[in-house]
Design brief:
By secondary structure, the chain is mainly α. It folds into four domains: 223 residues, no CATH class; 71 residues, no CATH class; 116 residues; 76 residues, Serine Threonine Protein Phosphatase 5, Tetratricopeptide repeat (Alpha Horseshoe), CATH 1.25.40. It is 66% helix and 1% strand. The protein has a two-stranded antiparallel ribbon with strand order 1-2. Helix 1 runs antiparallel to helix 3, helix 16 crosses helix 17 and helix 18 crosses helix 19. It is rod-shaped.
Length: 676
């Protein structure tokens, strides 16, 4: 953990120690002392010029590298303090604000200041005569020794002047002139703007920043100056030179101290910059350190370059986040930088770039999604097509060409073509289905099955109407249908004539049958035999039964029982069929079979059943025979005269002669007379 920050500190530079002034001995001491002092000041000034030149060469600023990232090796390198015998100044580094001794390299400017201070002391001594000023100026600045002016002995003073100039050569005058020029040049080189003020001023340096490293117990820096006094005995020109040199020396010393105070912050700032700690964490970031340096020294170009590097780093990191599509992080980082550093056109432009990049990214995402959806739909469609083609092939193998609906090969192939109109497999499948129907149509035409051929061609045309074979076979079918129609027309005409002839014949046979049956039941058996025999030979069952009865009982013809039995047998099946169909004459004739027992077993109950069926339909012969069964009784049914008379009466009412005779035999009333 880092030590707690100490309270705010201020630094006050101590004024330079005044050198011990030598007593003024006056020109009576001879020119040797004056020459010694003049030569000493000149030597000091020349030495200061050389040191100044070296310091200026060493202090030339190194142009900043374009890359905003600072090498961690260069930034982490620090120079170990070297002990020097000169004056030591406090240097605040690290978070604990340790006071370090400046290195040997940093001592060169301080040594120059010391040399200039020595030269100023020499030049400002009370007994130093400034030969660069006019004589009247020096005379005006001489202190008054007494209230009354002494008597001027012109001869005496002229001898003194000649004696004085004997001791001073031209070389000494040139040396003094060079010293003054050197002092002026040094003034221009080392004096910052505003440092040559007349009055003494206090310079207080406060270190305010995120790390708050300014020591609180350091005295306030003051530019040490030697003020003028009304009681001073130094001439006015000498006082001006002294103040000017000391101001420059103190200003240079203050600048050196500022550099020593700023260097730890700059070093930490470069380290944070290399590590990427631009604006965070709050207590350890590059921006806070650079801002601290600027608060100590607003003219620090290194700190200003560092601020620019921090700004550039923020922009680079923001751009990198935006390139990685981390727009929220980029926006949050930029907002944090704006809140910490302050807004700027570069940050506004970066924010606009983030918005533009995000909009472009969203558009690209939307396009990518559309492409992905399209590719997915294509894949799904292809999978669906493959599934449909497999189902169509199965339907073809199972001969499900057009049926059942929705599960036939044709429907499946057409579904594939709706999804992919250029699908070759589906088109080939439809061609195969068309060929199947065309082959079936050819077979039907060969067998003259025009109807089936038409159906197959219709199916082929429904599958592929553009197939040329469909057109060819359709033309053949139309010709065959025409010929078939003509044949059917002619046949229909022939059938019509035949039908008419058959109708005539049937009508004649019906008349003969009716006449024969009427004659049979009226007892005219010869005539009945004459009408019914041709019909019996043609297979008329009603005629066969009656002819067989006449042959069996020798009524109207000779007896021929075998022929009668054969005729009964031939008529049995048609009579049974007609009886089931509900025809009354057939039901009555079938009952006769059960009564006679010639061809089938005798069964009076079955006979009564079929007689009743026919009697209920009003068939008179059946009513007479049913009355006969009830009169005699049958198969457990006791005789019943009343029922018998009822059925006799029903038949007699229709003119049945047998029923009339039976009623007469029983002495019953006859409902009517007449014959049929």
């Amino acid at each position: 953990t880092e030590p707690a920050d100490p309270p705010e500190l201020s630094v006050e530079a101590k004024p330079a120690k005044p050198r011990k002034q030598q007593a003024y001995k006056g020109p009576a001491n001879g020119g040797k002392a004056i020459t010694r002092r003049g030569k000493g000041a000149s030597s000091i000034v020349l030495s200061a010029l050389d040191n100044t030149k070296n310091a200026v060469n060493l202090a030339k600023p190194v142009p900043p590298r374009r890359n905003t990232k600072v090498s961690s090796i260069d930034e982490s390198h620090t120079t170990k303090p070297v002990k020097t015998p000169g004056r030591q100044e406090p240097l605040f580094t690290g978070r604990a604000h340790d006071i370090k001794t400046p290195s040997a390299e940093t001592r060169a400017p301080l040594k120059i200041a010391d040399d200039l201070e020595d030269a100023g002391q020499v030049l400002t001594e009370q007994n130093f005569q400034d030969f660069s000023l006019p004589p009247q100026s020096r005379a005006k600045t001489q202190p008054k020794r007494s209230q009354a002016l002494p008597h001027l002995d012109i001869k005496k003073w002229s001898q003194r002047l000649r004696s004085l100039f004997k001791h001073y050569s031209v070389r000494f005058g040139v040396g003094v002139l060079l010293a003054l020029v050197a002092i002026y040049i040094l003034y221009l080189l080392v004096t910052p703007p505003g440092a040559d003020r007349d009055a003494a001023s206090n310079t207080t340096i406060e270190i305010i920043g995120a790390t708050d490293l300014t020591p609180s117990d350091t005295p306030t820096l003051e530019i040490a100056q030697i003020g003028s006094s009304s009681e001073s005995t130094i001439p006015q020109a000498t006082e001006f030179a002294k103040d000017d040199d000391l101001a420059r020396a103190n200003a240079y010393r203050d600048a050196e101290k500022l550099a020593r105070l700023s260097e730890p912050h700059l070093a930490r700032a470069r380290t944070y910059l290399a590590e990427g700690h631009l604006i965070s964490p709050p207590d350890a970031n590059a921006y806070s350190e650079f801002r601290t340096v600027l608060k100590m020294d607003p003219d620090s170009s290194a700190a200003q370059r560092g601020i620019d590097q921090v700004t550039a780093g923020v922009l680079i990191k923001t751009e990198a986040l935006a390139k990685n599509n981390e727009f929220s992080d980029a926006r949050a980082f930029l907002d944090g930088a704006v809140a910490f550093i302050g807004d700027s056109p570069e940050f506004q432009f970066a924010r606009s770039n983030i918005e533009t990049a995000q909009a472009q990214w969203k558009q690209q995402q939307a396009l990518a999604k559309l492409e992905a959806d399209k590719a997915r739909r294509v894949r799904e469609q292809q999978q669906k097509i493959e599934t449909l083609l497999a189902a169509a092939s199965t339907a073809m193998n199972e001969n499900r060409l057009r049926t059942p609906p929705g599960a036939n090969a044709l429907a499946i192939y057409r579904t594939v073509l709706t999804l992919d109109p250029a699908n070759a497999r589906a088109r080939n499948g439809i061609t195969r289905i068309t060929q199947v129907y065309l082959d079936e149509a050819r077979d039907a035409l060969a067998q003259n099955q025009l109807g089936r051929a038409a159906q197959e061609l219709e199916a082929a045309a429904a599958v592929d109407p553009t197939n040329p074979n469909v057109v060819i076979l359709s033309t053949q079918l139309q010709r065959r249908q025409y010929l078939e129609t003509e044949q059917q027309r002619l046949q229909a005409e022939a059938d019509e004539r035949i039908s008419q002839a058959q109708a005539i014949a049937d009508e004649q046979a019906s008349l003969n049958l009716t006449s024969g049956v009427t004659a049979y039941y009226n007892g005219n058996y010869p005539r009945a035999y004459q009408f019914l025999t041709p019909l019996a030979q043609e297979g008329e069952p009603q005629a066969q039964v009656r002819v067989a009865r006449m042959l069996l009982e020798a009524r109207g013809t000779n007896r021929d029982k075998p022929k009668a039995i054969a005729m009964f047998s031939a008529a049995l099946a048609p009579i049974q069929l007609a009886a089931r169909e509900g025809r009354a004459w057939a039901q009555s004739d079938l009952a006769d079979y059960f009564v006679d027992g010639f061809v089938i077993d005798k069964d009076l109950s079955s006979a009564a059943f079929w007689y009743r069926k026919a009697a209920e339909q009003g068939y008179a012969p059946a009513q007479t025979n049913l009355g006969w069964l009830y009169f005699n009784g049958y198969d457990g049914v006791a005789p019943n005269r009343a029922v018998a008379v009822h059925w006799f009466s029903e038949a007699a009412a229709q003119g049945n002669r047998t029923a009339v005779r039976n009623l007469q035999s029983l002495g019953e009333e006859i409902p009517g007379e007449g014959g049929s």
